[in-house]
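Section 3.1: Structural characterization of target chains.
Under the original work plan, the team committed to producing a structural model for every single-chain target entering the pipeline before any wet-lab resources were allocated. The record below documents one such target. The sequence was received from the expression subgroup and is listed exactly as submitted; it comprises 444 residues.
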Amino acid sequence: MSEILLISEQTKNKMKTPHFLYIETYGCSANQNNSEIIKGKLINAGTELVSNPEIADIILINTCIVKEPTENSIKQRIIDLEKLNKPIIIAGCMPQVRHAWLNNQKNVFLLGISHIKEITKLIRRIIENKYDSKEFLSTPHELKVNCSKIRQNKLIGITQISEGCLGNCNFCLVNQVKGRLFSYPEEEIIRNIQNDLKQGCKEIWLTSQDLASYGLESNDKTAFISLLKEILKINSKFKLRLGMMNLNHILPILPSLLEIYKHEKVYKFLHVPVQSGSNNILKAMNRKYSKQDFIEIVKKFRKEFPDSIIATDIITAFPGEIEKDFRETLELIKETKPDVMNITRYWPMQGTRAAKLEQIDRRTASNRALEVQKLHLKISEENFKKYECKTIEVFINEQEGTNCLARDENYRLIVIKSDKKLLGKILNVKIKKAFPHYLLAEVA
């Protein structure tokens, strides 16, 4: 999604010159939320949303570098936008670890991950020709809650509960980008959710780099469950979607977490990134769990919630992955049958330890990723087939024209064709056909 923010006459007078700002957002739900906050800051300055990058005076790119292809794509996008000969603000993950490359580009200004709420200050510095990148690249902790924001979806409230992580994976740049774990105060999180609900949200997404690590930087092992209990006490009708959680932090709280999931407000959706089915590769990645841990979590979750959605992440062809390791990954997938899989062919990310290791040839890497993809499509379609001809209750959370997107109790994606305005409604639909990633339905 991309937008331009047109600053009002009042703001023009403050800034001494008129400006249009064009925004593009890449990456995770936390990044989406950061863009919502940026838009809210500018709207509070009297802005109006329009669309057209070519009439922008300043361009803002909210970046992601979780994968090398994504990073390369964004770099190319920046190079293309430079042809417009306008100031380009680079926000998100890239400024923290790619500032050398960015500083070599024309008309580029950096907004660090802990300075999202200072967007208007940065623009003022640019206008006054007083910009200093050091001012916006330090890493203090910034609370990204209880801010004015312009939501991408008016029915969905995204709440970040922490930033950074406790891990030190050999393939990942999160520590370098976002630092060590910083958990937001529980009362601030609750207030943020209450505000979203008052403003009409029906779905609340909790997001961070690892939800289950919440509070662990201060060794509070009960903090995450306590937070969830307080959220579920909020006297309002809504659905709660929990984001990604790492296995090693789920295991100590698994019984309590399963009890939380029994609450009617919680989507029966669990995202646990296993990354590999080989314990040797998990050790090489510096992941702090085993494949047996993943199997245990999936079995216990599915025992309590047979129709639940299990999502996971897989990296193929990590340095040192031999055929035996890869086959173990395939066997793990066959045994646990995840409904959703984010499959990545390993790419060496500059600045990580794994990037310095001997790499597996690209043909082998691509073939392995393709084999996992084929297996996943087969399993996912089999998982979804059992819903054909059934009638289920869904919540319509997106609608564009006659295309409606809905979610069931387990956060399973349902596509509905309808001429009626159904956005925000809860209704029964009949499943007509199953596909690997969604169900096609009609209103019952």
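The chain is about 35% helix and 20% strand.
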